[in-house]
Each structure stands twice: as C-alpha cells, then as structure tokens.
Amino acid sequence: MQKTSEVKSYFTERARLFDALYEDESEFSRVFNRIFRRAMLERYVYTLEALGDLQAKHVLDVGCGSGRYAVELARAGARVTGIDFSPEMIEMAWARLTGPAGDGTELAQRVDLVSGDFATWSGAEGRHFDAVFAMGVLDYVADAPAFIARMAELGETVIASFPRPTPLRMPLRKLRYSLRNCPVYFYRRAKIEEMFRAAGLADIVTRHLGGAGYWVQGRRP
Known about the structure:
The chain is an alpha/beta fold. The chain has a single domain (2-219), classed as Rossmann fold (3-Layer(aba) Sandwich). It has helices spanning 2-13, 15-19, 27-36, 38-51, 68-75, 87-98, 105-108, 144-154, 169-178, 189-198; strands at 58-62, 79-84, 111-115, 129-134, 155-163, 202-209, 213-219.
C-alpha cells in the first residue's frame, strides 16, 4: 500500500509533465523522442494493431493517464473503460475527450473514466472485456504476477509493456525515480512470459521496444 501511495503521488504531481512526453512540437523534441522515447511510440502502434477492428469491442485501459489511448480507441468504435489512480490524469483525459482533440462529447459517451487503484477496484466485479491493456504501468507495480492475473481475469486478451534491465538506462532511471521517492521495477523476458503463463494466458507474443523493454500479448485459451 505504501508503494502504491508513493507512485500515486509521483504521477499526480507530475501528470502534465508526463503527458507532455507525447507531444512533438519542436525539432528538438522530435529528435529527442526518436532517440529516447521510441518505445512509447512503438508500444502505442503495437497495441492499436493488436486490438484490430474495435467496433463494438469493450476495452479496459489500465493506467489510462491523460487519455491518449482512450481517444483513439473510442474514435475507432470501441467502448472504453479507463482507470487511473491520479485524479489529475483523469481530469486531463476528460478534457481531451470532450475538447477539440476528442471531437467533442460524442466520443466521451463511449468512454467511462474511473479514478482509482486497479488492484483494488471493486467496479471490476462481474465485468468482462474483450481486451485489457496496461502501457507504462508495470514499471511501478510491486506485485506484477498478481496484477497480470487480475488483468487475465477480466479480459480475453491481455497486453502490457515492461521495462527491461539494461546496463545504462536501468541504474539512471532508478536513481532519477528514487530522488522523487517513486519505485520502479524491471523485468527479463523469461520472467514476463512466466507470469503470463501463470495467469492462464497462451499464444504469448513478445516484441522488443526500442531496446528499452518489451511489449507482450497473451490470450485466454
């Protein structure tokens, strides 16, 4: 619980700065993103490709942040539930859905946003989703096996991203986050796939993310 509180505080305080990582407004930011944020773009593309035809599908976006995924999924015809434990992120997601980027209130009618902790979310009881995904979330989850198992309970398809241990990026990132009292975790491919199998998932697909991590998909047999 204490670690969850620390992560929540980190992202609530830095919500707008984190969301700005997706922006591409200057030549410098474009070059920076191509080098250092390539994994964010790749996991975005892989996820939308994997979800396929979204008409009438029910999708759960765990750690939905400022609604970057929710807008595109709703625009493609999905019914989306997004959950994030940062109220600031949820506010930004609603603004994105109902503003010019989200084409007004029509998209918002296909999206349900929840401010809460996925691990203890009571609203999930009795619900079923065609797909459940978590991008950039497992980085901060202390009990990843239980988190993946809960995702598998709720969805036919489970998709998640994971940072991998690297000799340079891992220690630098750990140091940067420790200075703000926010834990961060790293995973090897074998361990990730083991967690997916333990959750009852099969047909596991693992893809590299710009040398910084993995994008992984599993399905219920």
